[in-house]
Amino acid sequence: MTDFVNNRAGGAQVGRNVTKIDAFKLARGEPVYTDDVHPAGMLWAKVLGSPHAHARILDVDASRALALPGVVDVAWHRQVKPILHTRAGQSHPEPSPYDTVIMPDKARHMGDRVAIVVAETLAIAEQALGLIDVKYEVLPALTDMDEALARTDVLVHEVADPRGIAEGGRSNVAARIDKQVGDVSAALKTCDHVVERTYWLPRVQASHIEPHVAISWLDEDGRLVVRTSTQVPFHLRRILARILELKEADIRVVKPRVGGGFGDKQEMVMEDIVALMTLRTKRPVRLEFTRTEELTSARCRHPQRIVMTTGVMNDGTIIANRMNVTADTGAYGSHALTVQGNTGQKVLPMYPCANIHFQVTCLYTNNPISGAFRGYGAPQGCFALESHIDEVAKVLGMDRLELRKKNHIRLGDTDPLSAKLGEGREGLSRVIRSTGLETAIEMGCDAIGWTRKRPPSAPHLRRGLGMALAMQGSGIAGVDWGAATVKLNEDGSVNLAVGATDIGQGSDTVLAQMCAQELGISYEKVRVLSSDTDLTPFDVGAYASSTTYVSGGAVVKAAQQMRDQLAGVFAEKWACPAGDVVFGDDNVSCGPDKAMTMAELATHALYAAKMQPAATASHMSNESPPPFAAQFADVEVDPETGEVFLRRFVSAVDCGTPIHPGMAEGQIEGAVSQAIGYALFEEVIVDRAGKVKNPNFLDYKIASALDMPEMVTILVPTMEPSGPYGVKAAGEVPIDGPAPAIVNAICDAVGARLCRIPATPERVWRQIKEAGE
Amino acid sequence: MWELKEYRIAGSIGEAVAMMRRGPGKGVYIAGGTDLFLFPPACDYVVDINHVGMSNIARTPDGDLFIGAAATLHDIATCPLVTGFAGGLVSAAAAHCGNRPVRTTATIGGNLCNALPSADLAPALLALDAVCYIADEDSQESLPLEEFFTGPRRTVLDGRLLVGIALSAASGGWRAAARRLTRSAEDIALVQVAVALEIDGDRVGAARIALGSVAPVPMRAMLAEALVEGELIANLDPDRLADAAAIAAGECEPIDDHRASAEYRREMVGVLTRRLLASVLAGSTDTSPGTDNEGGAA
Question: How many CB pairs below 8 Å do chains A and B form together?
Answer without folding.
Answer: 68
